[in-house]
Structures are given as C-alpha cells and as structure tokens.
Amino acid sequence: MTGVVVCVDVGSTYTKAAAVEAGTGALRGTASHPTTLGTDVMEGLEQAVAAAVPEDAEVIETFVCSSAGGGLRLGVIGNEPLVTARAAFRAGLSAGARVVHVCAGELRDADWNDLAESRPDVLLLAGGTDGGDETALRAHAEALAASQVRAPVVFAGNADAAAVVTASLTEAGVDITVVDNVLPRIGRLNPVPARTALREVFLRHVIAGKHLSARADFTETVKAATPDAVLTGVELLADLTGDDLLAVDVGGATTDVYSVLTPDAEMSGPRAEVAGTAWRSRTVEGDLGVRHTATGIVEAAESDDLHPDPRLREAARHRTEHPDFKAETEPERQSDAELSALAARVAVGRHARGERIGGPTEPLRGGKDLAAVRLVVGSGGVFRRDPESAATRLRQAVCDHTAGGFRPPEAAQVVIDGDYALAPAGLLAANGHRETAERLLRTAFTD
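RE: above sequence
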C-alpha cells in the first residue's frame, strides 16, 4: 500500500479533503462534504476523508486547516492610523485573519466599546518604531487592561515597551504573546513574526473556543487558519514559477485575494510609504461570499458601478438566507457563476487599490500594480464546477477590467485550481513535506 498525507480544509460551507501521496506529490483522491457545524465538524470531516482516500492507500498523517465558525477575527490597535496601525493591519491580513476593527490614536471609552462589540478573537497591539516614543503604546496597554475586552493579545510594537506592556496586561489576566515589531523602523514592514504568533494563538485559543468539535483529535490535527495555509501555498507556487502571481479564492462567506509581487524599486527607495509595503500579501473581503454574504456582492458591485443584472439581487438574497443552498438547475448555476465573477472583480479591485485605515475619509494607501502578474489562479467551489468557463469569467473579471482604478494583469495565464491544490500544498509545506508540496503544485499548475 502507498502512504498518503491527508489534507483537509474545514470551511464555513464545505469540508474538502485531499489525499496526497507522500514523496511523489501525486493527488490520489479528493472529496467534499457539507461542513457539519450544527453537530460536530468531525462528522463531515471523516466523511470527506473516507471518500478521498483510495482503498490501496494508507494514511500516514492528517493535517487540517479551518475557517469554519468565521475564521480568525482580529482587532488591531496602533499608535496612529497611517503608520503603525496600518502596518499591523497588513500583518494581520497576511496571517489569514479577518480584521474586524482597527483603532488608533487617542482612544476614548466609546472606542473601547466599539472594539468590544466587534468581538475579536485576538488583538494585535502595535505602536512605535523600536527605540521610539512609548507614551501612546503604554496608554493603550493600560486602557486595554482596564477594559472589558479579554481576547488574547499579540504584542508587535516598540520592543523597548514590551516588558511594561506585558506586566500591565498579565496582571489584568490577559494572555499576551510578544514578538518582534511589525514596523521596527520607518518604511520597513516586518509581518512574519506577528503572522506566526497569530497563527499559534488561533490554534491555541480560537479553534478550541469556537466549539467546532468536542473531540481532541480535531484540535490536535488543525495546523492553520485556511487563508494562512493558502497563502503559504501561493508563496510556494510563486517561488516555483519565478513569476508575479495573483490568486482569488471565492468562498461561501468571504473572497480572499493573494498576491506575490516583485518589489518595485521606486517603492522600496526614498518614495516608499512610511508603513512599508507587503509584497506577499492577502486581503479578505467579508461581504463577498457566494452564500453567507451573497447580498454583499450585489451591493458592492452596484457601489462600484458594475451594473449587475437586477435578477441577481433575488438570487443573492436567497443564498444568504439559505447558505446550504445547492445550485441544481442551469439558471441557478449561472447565477452562481455571475456572483463569483463579481466577487472576484470587486475583491481584486480592493486588494490592488489599497486600504483606508483610520476611517472612510482617509486616502487609499498600499496599492499594488498588477500589470506584471503572469499567473492568475482562481479557487473556490463555484470555479471548480466548470474550470474552463470559470477561467474565461475570471479573465474577464480581473484582466480585462481596465476601469477599476488600478493596473490589471496585462499578459497573464489564467488557471483554475481544479484539483484543489493550494491549501493542501500550504499544509504540506508548513508541516515537514515541502518537497511533496512542490511536486503537487508542479503537477497542478506547471506541467
């Protein structure tokens, strides 16, 4: 019998399993099952695994990633919105988090109440460059300790304040993890330590805290938040191809966009933004899912003057009210296809144009030039149903849309992750099977 590593993604709508032959990277089987959130997610997981693993294979390891139950909800606290809060915001996105609240500057009681109402799973506390002014950072730590917010904290601010901040929060009973500064000096973005710590906090606190399963073997096998696993797979694929890459993952609750770009010499020099630029980055759009948040797709498309078909509003409403809906007829599948294309177009536009940190009146910052992207990958169940037509729709949505306020890919190959390889490759690479992950990706995207 051949040994396989089983990689499972427990999503908000479906649980997907892939059996990958150890060493060769051959995909021996895939299967999906509706995520059993109403009972225990292990029920759907085991059904998916049983269907994916062939009879002549032996499971040697199982790795799981999860975005079920809303994934990782992150709150960001920074000294001020345009530098440290923005750097922390980018670090959070790269960790696979959904940033549900950002606050910065002089914070009042109302700001702490707003933070509490956003229900963050984890807080990312940043502020100042190393050796800089500690005043605002210390004030934020003291106010947080006195507040009603009791989410675990990842501290990634001025290293000189780490001891005082740790003492203040620990005394208040707040779990705190200290890592290197996300912005050690002006213009230098350092998201990796915060990203790693957020992943560990996600595994330690969030997976268990969401009560997705009463079984210990679930928490033991979960290795990452799904977007973090996908980002690892995207980065590995970019390293293999040597080209700029864009990936768009349209899911039931969110649409996630990943980009790996060659640093722009001008943006890395004197003209660089003070918060730095994340050349390997991810954004999540929590209002652009084809099931749970389908009405948000139509609303966002109308706001962007994309003029969606009026009949999509009713189709989106039905999907939002019935997230377990399955498209069975041709008109239903066509509505899914149109919603997924709109979600991709809006999400890529937001990713490329940048973010507004500090409020709706702030300018867009951190935009990305996608013109040099040579490979666009589409992922998600809607795309996988009909990869050939989905690739055409994705090209039209992302590459042929030139009025979105950014430079789209000019000469890119567009492919669909039809074999569902990105998340499994990310899980494999992060858990001691990098060579197997590379071979899986080569087979799926480059052969």
